[in-house]
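Key result, reporting period 2: structure in, sequence out.
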């Protein structure tokens, strides 16, 4: 329950402090006096975006602060979840700084607007003329049915099942797109894999085969050169003969100088090495033989290898083999993708079943509670002088179900006996809409158990006895909760437990809005003004006194 509201430096308001209590608080004032400013300050506390033009004195900040008693509303868990200090006496403050910044606080702890909105949504609700017009909106009508019919748990379960099904549909579409793109590439990739597999990397070492091909293609040249090399080594005047002669000379000389023995030994080693080289070259020459069939095979294999190497821009067999493994992996991924798609389709069937079941449960609950809600609304409409009115919720199956369910709803209404019932946007006048909305909000406030409910000119379009009945209904609602009503009707104003008057005046060449809590005597004058305007008469004041006595008790 809102206990106090203070407003500083907000639009035409310099400084206002208001105390509130249980019951019905009525707020009156001439058109343009500043009632909308008071509501604007409240909206700021409820988390609306800041309008920096409301700062009256640009050298000071705007502050709106509300004090709430929240001990009876089980909010300690909410405070804990937001890491806020809980106190049954909760202070909510909003500041707008001239520098273009806005700040929000809960019990002096800074909070983002999202948290502020989430908290105040549990504390207060403002119903305006605009929201009355929402009665014509089918989505609002459906939400009305769900709230008043306690269908929210079924609706949330339905949304969860619907979202799961739609998410699975999206996943399958993505998988199918990926598979389609993959299948377009698969034939080409399969061709590449087959082409690379023909190179037979397990059996062929292409570095060795390239060397063998070079040797085979140049066999005649190699044989001639090797034979010549052997002759240079082994002929009578060849390298070996010369080395042996050198070895003999050193051996003889070493008899006279032992230091030459080392050179003799080294030459001896060279002789042995040269003999080995000569023998190996002879063996190499004997092994040079050209097999025309093998040569043709080598030419074909190496040409294929080098062509494919160039085609894929790889530098060697290792890179080409790695590329083959990569392509083979892609082929395997195609199969895995097909298997995954099959599994996800089975999941989709399950999600579809869950969605359909949740939708069926929600639809059955809605159709069951709809006539019950109507039975609750009709007595309230009778109280508001709509005797004989009829109402019903008509259901239409949707071609394409969405997050709100399988059906759309038409709230249908007939304000008079003998008049055909039809959608409320075609059958209700402005005043009838206001009364219907008041009846709905009466039920809604009971369901939601909001601490504070505010009506902004909910009585628009009515007068006379109907206005009196609205006032009595609001007063009755105010016995169970804190209720505020901005009104132009004397009957409603007379029904309040507390009466606030909003006035605009000029002080020191400045226009100022003030909010005053009226005494009983002041109320008579204020209500009389609502009856007769500025020309206040004794008769109007007498009527105001009677109205206060009949509606205020």
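The corresponding designed sequence is given below.
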């Amino acid at each position: 329950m809102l206990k106090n509201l203070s407003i500083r430096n907000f639009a035409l308001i310099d400084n206002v402090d208001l105390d509130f209590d249980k019951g019905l608080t009525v707020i009156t004032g001439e058109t343009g006096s500043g009632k909308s400013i008071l509501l604007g300050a409240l909206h700021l506390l409820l988390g609306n975006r800041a309008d920096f033009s409301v700062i009256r004195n640009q050298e000071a900040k705007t502050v709106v602060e509300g004090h709430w008693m929240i001990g009876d509303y089980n909010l300690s868990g909410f405070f804990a979840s937001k890491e806020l200090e809980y106190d049954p006496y909760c202070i909510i403050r909003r500041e707008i700084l001239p520098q273009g910044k806005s700040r929000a606080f809960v019990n002096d702890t800074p909070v983002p607007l999202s948290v502020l909105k989430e908290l105040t949504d549990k504390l207060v609700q403002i119903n305006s003329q605009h929201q009355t017009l929402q009665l014509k909106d089918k989505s609002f009508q459906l939400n009305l049915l769900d709230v008043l019919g306690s269908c929210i748990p079924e609706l949330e379960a339905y949304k969860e099942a619907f979202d799961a099904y739609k998410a699975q549909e999206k996943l399958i579409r993505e998988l199918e797109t990926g598979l389609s793109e993959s299948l377009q590439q698969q034939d080409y990739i399969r061709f590449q894999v087959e082409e690379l597999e023909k190179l037979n990397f397990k059996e062929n070492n292409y570095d060795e085969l390239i060397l063998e091909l070079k040797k085979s293609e140049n066999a005649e040249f190699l044989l001639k050169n090797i034979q010549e090399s052997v002759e240079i080594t082994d002929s009578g005047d060849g390298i070996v003969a010369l080395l042996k002669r050198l070895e003999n000379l050193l051996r003889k000389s070493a008899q006279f100088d032992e230091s030459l023995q080392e050179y003799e030994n080294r030459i001896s080693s060279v002789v042995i090495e040269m003999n080995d080289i000569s023998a190996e070259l002879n063996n190499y020459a004997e092994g040079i033989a050209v097999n025309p069939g093998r040569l043709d095979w080598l030419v074909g294999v190496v040409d294929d290898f080098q062509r494919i190497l160039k085609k894929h821009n790889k530098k060697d067999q290792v890179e080409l083999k790695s590329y083959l493994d990569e392509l083979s992996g892609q082929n395997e991924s195609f199969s895995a993708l097909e298997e995954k798609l099959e599994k996800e389709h089975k999941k989709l069937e399950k999600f579809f079943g869950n969605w359909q079941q949740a939708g069926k449960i929600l639809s059955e609950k809605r159709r069951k509670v709809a006539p019950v809600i109507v039975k609750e609304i009709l007595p309230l409409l009778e109280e508001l002088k709509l005797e004989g009115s009829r109402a019903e919720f008509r259901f239409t199956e949707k071609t394409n179900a969405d997050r709100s369910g399988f059906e759309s709803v038409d709230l249908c209404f007939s304000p008079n006996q003998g008049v055909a019932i039809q959608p409320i946007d075609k059958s209700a006048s402005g005043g009838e809409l206001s009364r219907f909305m008041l009846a709905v909000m009466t039920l809604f406030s009971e369901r939601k158990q909001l601490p504070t409910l505010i009506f902004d000119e909910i009585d628009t379009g009515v007068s006379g006895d109907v206005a009196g009945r609205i006032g009595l209904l609001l007063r009755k609602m105010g016995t169970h909760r804190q209720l505020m009503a901005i009104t132009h009707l004397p009957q409603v104003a007379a029904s309040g437990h507390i009466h606030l008057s909003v006035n605009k005046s000029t002080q020191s060449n400045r226009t100022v809005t003030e909010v005053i809590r009226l005494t009983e005597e002041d109320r008579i004058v204020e209500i009389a003004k609502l009856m007769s305007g500025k020309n206040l008469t004794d008769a109007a004041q007498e009527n105001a006194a009677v109205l206060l006595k009949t509606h205020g008790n």
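The CA atoms of residues 241 and 270 lie 12 Å apart. The mean pLDDT is 87. This case is discussed further under Risks and Mitigation.
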